[in-house]
Each structure stands twice: as structure tokens, then as C-alpha cells.
Amino acid sequence: MRPKDRSGFSIAIICALTVEADAVTLLFDEVYDRYGDEYGRHPGDTNSYTVGTIGKHNVVLCYMPEMGKASAAGVATKMKFSYPGVSLALVVGVCGGVPLLPFSNTPIFLGDVIISHAVVRYDYGRQYPDGFKRKEGIPNNLGRPNQEIRTLLNRLQTSMARSDLQNDIVQYLEVLRRSDPRWQYPGKACDVLFDASYHHKHHQRATSLKCSCFNSESPGQICQEAQESSCDSLECDENRIIRRRPSDAAGVSIHIGTIASSDTVMKSGEHRDKLAKDENVAGFDMEGAGVWDELPCIIIKGVCDYADSHKDKKWQAYAAATGASSAKAFLRYWNPASSEGQPTILDMGFGYPAKHSEV
Questions:
Q1: Where are the alpha helices (DSSP H) in the chain?
Q2: What mean pLDDT comes out for the span 297-317?
Q3: How far apart are the C-alpha atoms of 25 and 78, rounded to whole Å?
Q4: 132 and 126 Cβ atoms separated by less than 8 Å
Q5: What b/e string do you get for 14-45 counting C-beta neighbours within 10 Å, with b at 16 or more?
Q6: Are strands 30-33 and 48-54 parallel, antiparallel or unpaired?
Q7: In the predicted model, is pLDDT for residue 92 greater than 80?
Q8: 110/103 Cα distance (integer angstroms)
Q9: CB under 8 Å to 304, separation ≥6 — which residues?
Q10: E-assigned strands of the chain?
Q11: Whole-model pTM?
């Protein structure tokens, strides 16, 4: 039923990139107010919204002005005043992925989707003269999802629910593919993984004096030109490819795990693997931690790169499509208890307590 006012919206979807929001908008079953004119905003709220329905839920889509935790936290805080009935926020879009989950040896491929059950802030620590020291045990600082979220995530790990979820994702992904060629699967030939120690840089001395790829004082340094170049133009050595996507991995797999969140983009295979081993991390994003402490939250993101220096945007649109399709599929299973007579987000304050035991 169409809400009479903003308090009738219970689900928020937050996107940082235009391509992410485009994919989500195309999967709305009905759009009530595309530009936010009809429902308006609370005074002082500078966010931009599109509202409508996804399945049985009244949903508000919120556009972020820029990437990052601070931006995400600001957006979530303002939204609580305009939409006090929101009981769940989905941070939807794209992320970097760990190629292999360290404790299960489960492979993650480009286009797969990661759903969060915990968040690690990996830029939280102290800067010493000899380098940055990350503080360990960060999940306790961010808390864990509420019982309703944890229960559903456990259900989605059963064989039957996971199979149903993936079938729904395929259906919604097909809707996007038919709407625009940019949502198409890029092809398995574009999904390759380089050795973590093999950097995306000039491998022969460049003629440009600005190239720092061969700076003996900073052996890991990569010049700006190399950062903006493709693997083909840099002639990255295919002999250093340690995995190619197999033919039987063309579908979308769902991974429920820990998201590492930071204001910096992870572009280092070595740092990626260390953090994955230390914290059992499945993926990397820049917004999750900002929303996590403000609203009951789940991060649902498609993997667009392997969080190493070889990352590019070939898979970004497809990963945005798999993330959006997974969010819509997830909402089919979200059946919150009746909110009648229950406190709003503003009554409750933050979504979670400041500290909890580890998930």
C-alpha cells in the first residue's frame, strides 16, 4: 500500500555510485516519487531520494554525494530524520573481493555477491614513525547485527534458501540484461587473478622522467601513468596469472561473510591477503562502516575486482547488477515483525549498542 507520508517507508537502500543506483532503480516494481518532490524531506536534510516499492516493501533509495565512511554516516544520520520508520538499511553496490576465503578455501569470482554478517574497520589504528599499526579486534567496536538480521542470515545459509535466493537473482539479473547491454556478463576471459606479489606497473624502464616504478628507495611504488593504464597496455606477464575463471563458474555465487571497510581503496594483493587471513575478510568497501553504527544494516555488494593493483572497471556494471539483484532477492525473505507500537529509529538512537561480542 502506498504510504501516506515518509514514516511509512521501512527499507532504505544506500548507494555511493551512479551505476549502483541505476541498477537498483531499474529493479523497483513501482516508483512513487522519482525526485523526492511528493514526499519531501526533513528540514536540514540535504539527501536526495527516490521512493517506491520492491516486492512487498516500501523502499527509499538514497544517493550518496561521494564515496567513503564519513559520507555514508552523514547520509544515514540525515535519513533517520526524514524517514524515521526505516528498520533496515541495505548498502548496495560493488566491492573488492578476496579470491579465496581463508578458512573455507571457497573461491570468490568477479560478479559474485558478498552479504555482510560483520564489518571490520581496517583503517582504525595508530600512525607510528615506522608505519601504520592497525588496531586488532575491530568487529567488537562496530557491534553485530540485531537478532532479526542474524536469524535471516543463518536461514540464507541453508541449502534450500540459498538455492532459492540464487534462482531469484538470476531472474532479476535477466531483467537488467534485457534493459541495457551495459549489464551484460563480461565473459570469463576477463576474470583473471595475478599473483599477489606481482604489481600492476611498468615492467620495463619508461622513457618518462615522471615514472617512479623503478625507484630503488620505494620498490613498491607505482607511477600515476601505470595506475591509469590497462594490463594490456602495460603488458602484464600472463605467466604471473595464478587463476583463470573456469567454465563452470559462470553463475553468481553468494558469500555471507565479513566486509572490511575503510576510506581508502584496497589495491594491494599482499595487504588484501593478510587482512583476509587475520580477520577472515571476504570483501572490501568504503561505505559499510559509516552506515553500520547509524542504522540496522546489511551490506550487499557485487565483486568487481580482486582488490589488487590490477583492478579496473570492466566488471563494475555487471557487479552493480548482481548486487542490486541480490538486494531485491534478499528483500523477498525479509519479513520483520509488525512495527505497530514499536519505537522508531530516532527513539532507539543508534542501530546497535557500541560494543558486542564477536559474531
A1: 18-26, 69-82, 139-142, 147-155, 159-179, 224-227, 231-234, 269-279, 288-292, 316-333, 345-348
A2: 91
A3: 21
A4: yes
A5: bbbbebbbbbbbbbbeeebeeebeebebeeeb
A6: antiparallel
A7: yes
A8: 20
A9: 94, 95, 96, 110, 311, 313, 315, 316, 318, 319, 320
A10: 11-15, 30-33, 48-54, 57-63, 88-97, 113-121, 125-128, 131-134, 192-194, 241-244, 254-261, 281-285, 297-305
A11: 0.85
Query: What does the pLDDT look like over 191-215, one tens digit per residue?
Result: 988 877 776 565 665 555 566 556 5
Residue 57 corresponds to which cell in the numbers above? 516493501
Q: How many residues does the chain have?
A: 359
What domains are there in the chain, each with its CATH number? 6-198+237-348 (3.40.50.1580), 199-236 (no CATH)
Give the three cell numbers for residue 55.
Answer: 516486492
d(CA 137, CA 280): 12
In whole angstroms, how far apart are CA 187 and each of 123, 251, 259, 323? 34, 11, 26, 18
Q: What are residue 257's phi and psi, to 5 degrees? A: -165, -165
Residue where the block lists cell 590490477: 310
Cβ atoms within 10 A of the Cβ of 299, count?
28
